[in-house]
Amino acid sequence: MTKKMTKPATEPTTEQIEQLTRAFERFTRRFKVAEAAAAADNALNALDAQTLVFVDEHPGCLIGDVARYLNVAMTTMSSAIDRLVKKALVERRRPEDNRRSVALTATAQGRRVVEDHVAGYRMACQMMLRSLDPGERKELIRLTEKIADNET
């Protein structure tokens, strides 16, 4: 038996949309502050930080893979990679099986920067979850995962 995805019976109200918008503005500000703190230590802008995280999670990926994932132009991604290479956070390598492509890998220093970045996000999540009781935490995580998994 397959699980059937059902749509809500009614559309959200304008008031609900406004309430959620304001809540997410406050919510995302905490993540932006955590990301900025981690990036500031390494002088990374938001695009470079997200690029480094992707490369670290996908060793050997190509510039096009990162550009598609982050939904940016190849020229923009190429500039971000150049900056990360100059800071010794990412290495470019030519794969033996395709000498025309360039594989990207985070350096040891790059991996440390990603660890700092992730630690900042975890601290922001911990701070938010502290304000909830255990049942509310479980429900927030469940609902957040449901929203994140919805691709429409």
Please provide a written account of the structure:
The chain has one domain: Orthogonal Bundle (Arc Repressor Mutant, subunit A). It is built from six helices and three strands. By secondary structure, it is mainly alpha-helical. 66% of the residues lie in helices and 7% in strands. The protein has a three-stranded antiparallel sheet.
Strand and helix map with partners:
Elements (H helix, E strand, L loop, with lengths): L13 H29 L3 H12 L3 E2 H8 L3 H13 L3 E4 L9 E4 L1 H23 L3 H16 L3
Antiparallel strand pairs: 1-3, 2-3
Helix pairs in contact: 1-5, 2-4, 2-5, 3-4
How many β-strand runs?
3
Oligomer: single chain
CATH second-level architecture: Orthogonal Bundle
**Class by helix and strand content?**
mainly alpha
Instruction: Report the major sheet.
Output: 3 strands, antiparallel
- Distance between termini? 23 Å
The CATH topology label is Arc Repressor Mutant, subunit A
Broad shape: elongated
Fourth-level CATH superfamily: Winged helix-like DNA-binding domain superfamily/Winged helix DNA-binding domain
Helix content: 55-70%
